[in-house]
Every structure is written in structure tokens, then in C-alpha cells.
Amino acid sequence: MTMPEVKEEKREITFRVYRFNPQIDASPFYDEYPITVEKGITVLRALNYIKEHIEPRLSFRSFCQAGICGSCAMRINSVSKLACTTQVWDELAFADRENVILVEPIANLPVIRDLVVDMDSVVGKIEKYFGWVESKMPENQMGKKEFNIAEAEFKLYDAATDCILCASCISECTMTKANKEYITPAVLLKSYRMEADSRDAVHDKRLGVLVSDNGVWDCTHCYRCMEHCVKHIPIMEAIHHIREDAVQKRGLSDTPGAKHAAAFVKDIEKKGRLVESLLPIRTNGLSWTVKNMLPMAFKMTKKGKTPPPPFMVKAVPGIENLRSMLKELKSRGNSNHHK
């Protein structure tokens, strides 16, 4: 019996790769590398071939080549992935141009060169938000006895320990795109993992910075971090846990959202409408408002869109009826609360 001949599937595929060396290039550009690729080849192997045979100056990170270290994270066809676990042939279905795969550095972090990004800001945020366990055990007891963890407790943060800090979630985070000072999903996940650890001694200290400006309350719930996590970690669940912990330990009045809502109610009670010029101050305080809103205020003034000053905001007609309605609603709320 003659075995059928197995033909190796090959195809010429062009890799359109982002190039940028800030030291010599005025702006980024793209180079295209057409190469013949066998079925089963990953994007990382294709990049290695290009570097070895076509463009030795092409820069990218890689190490384990097995989806463990996270160093080869990059945007492939505009989605953040690990190059070492992404099959070239699978990506052809997502290409904008036939047989052309777009390769770019992950977003929301500065580019050092080509596909290599600067992770220093991530490390700095891990340091700021206490991304480690500060042991409860006295130093003179360390090494003399074990600090046992119950299996049930470990299950709480087991998934979070799978994070490899590839920064794919940071790359896809809509809030980080708008505000580079935002804590980022990866650092929130690490913070949750440490907060849930009973060996840790700085829970309150960490929670204090997590609920401050650019912290956990700034997450917009777009879920893109969870959707694009290469390890399929439920990052949003960790963020929800941090928020629930903050509300439980610090109360509802200690959040920007609660302060914003309280300012709304106060304005409606007093005048039946919002006093917009005071809203940022009541929500975030005077110093935050001056630091963050002043440039916008100047732009609004320049375009004649400044909200009226507080003394010009008059109460709406029938304000007494509105106050009676609010009083009744508050009474019902208090009654329900005590049931």
C-alpha cells in the first residue's frame, strides 16, 4: 500500500512591522518583509527569521517562547497578544490586507525601539501601590516557622497569580489611553492579589492609595482588559473586589462617585438645578480642581462656554414643592434602610 504524499503547506506572507528608533528617526514608519511561511509557524518565529536573514536591526523582546514570560507581547493585527503563541495562519483571517500581517508594539507605553516598550512606569506603579506582601511576621521570627495559608484563601487569588505582566491589558485599557497616570489593570490585579493575602500587614495603607486619584474608582468597566488577557484572568472581578472592600472599610462617602452624587443632591435641594462651577470642587476638592480643571476652564472661558458663577444660579420656580418631594424620598429611603 502506498502512503499518500503529504504536501507541506507554505505561503508567502508579508509582515508589515512598526519601526521607530527615537534616537535617529523623526517619526515612526513601517517596513514590509515578505517571507515564505510554513503552516504552524508562530509570529515570533517569523520575526526571528526576519531578524536573522533580512533585518538584523529589528528590535523586539522574547525569552521563553512558550507563553510563560510575557516578554513578547505586541499588537498583532491591532490586537495585543503574545507573539510566541500566535499562529501566523490564524492571523490571516484578521488581516486588513490579504496575506499581510500588521505587527506593532503594545500601546499605552513609550516605545524604546521598534517593538520594545518601556515598562518602567508599570514598575513604578507596582511600587506606588505596594504590589508585594509586607509580612505580618516579625523579622526575628522569619525562617524559624512557616506562615501557612489555607487552601480556601489561596483560591481567592489563585487566578491573579497567573499574571505574567505582559502588559496586554494595559495596551487595551481605554482609561490608560486617556490618562497615563491611571493605575492600570495589571497593577490593580497585583494589588488585589496582595490585599487578599492574610500574611500581608499593609492592607489599609495599600487601600488608601488604591482609592486615591487615578486609582480603582477611575476604571470605566469597559472589560477590554479581561477580554484581551492572554492568561484569561478575570481582572474585572479583582477590580470589583477592591471596590467592595473599599466601600466596606471606608464607607460610601469616601469615594469620588459618592461625593459627586452628594453634591448633585445638595444643589437640587437648594436651587432645583446644578451649580456646575462648584461641582468639581465639591467632588474632588479645591487643590485637585485647580490642578486638573484650570486649563479646561480657560478654554471654556475663551469659547464663551463657562457655567454661570454660583450667585447667578437662581432657584427654579416651585422649589418648595421639589424640596418636599426630596424630603419624602429621603424619609422613604431611611425607612427602607431600617427594615
CATH architecture of the largest domain: Orthogonal Bundle
CATH classification, class level of the largest domain: Mainly Alpha
Average pLDDT across residues? 89
Measure the end-to-end span.
83 Å
Radius of gyration: 27 Å
Enzyme class: oxidoreductase
Pathway: Carbohydrate metabolism; tricarboxylic acid cycle; fumarate from succinate (bacterial route): step 1/1
Family: Belongs to the succinate dehydrogenase/fumarate reductase iron-sulfur protein family.
Cofactor: [2Fe-2S] cluster; [4Fe-4S] cluster; [3Fe-4S] cluster
How are the elements arranged and paired?
Blueprint: E1 10-19, E2 29-38, H1 43-53, E3 73-76, E4 79-82, H2 88-91, E5 100-104, E6 111-113, E7 116-117, H3 120-128, H4 151-157, H5 168-172, H6 174-178, H7 185-195, H8 203-210, H9 224-227, H10 235-250, H11 256-271, H12 279-284, H13 286-302, H14 319-338
Parallel strand pairs: 1-5
Antiparallel strand pairs: 1-2, 3-4, 3-5, 6-7
Task: Describe, in short, the structure shown.
The chain is of the alpha+beta class and 339 residues long.
